[in-house]
Amino acid sequence: MAVLKVIEVLSNSETSWEDATRKAVKHASKSVKNIKSIYKNKTPL
Fold first, then answer.
1. How far apart are CA 10 and CA 17, in angstroms?
2. Long-range pairs of 33-37 with CB within 8 A, sequence gap ≥ 24
3. CA-CA distance, 16 to 1, in Å (whole number)?
């Protein structure tokens, strides 16, 4: 049986969404181990 944990992490960046993603994963990885993938929600600005 597989176990999946989904969390929502918010971040921002003046540069790009990629930079915001890097910052969010870096911060989340301090308390969440073995992050295998990310998903960017396609919300309109």
1. 11
2. none
3. 37
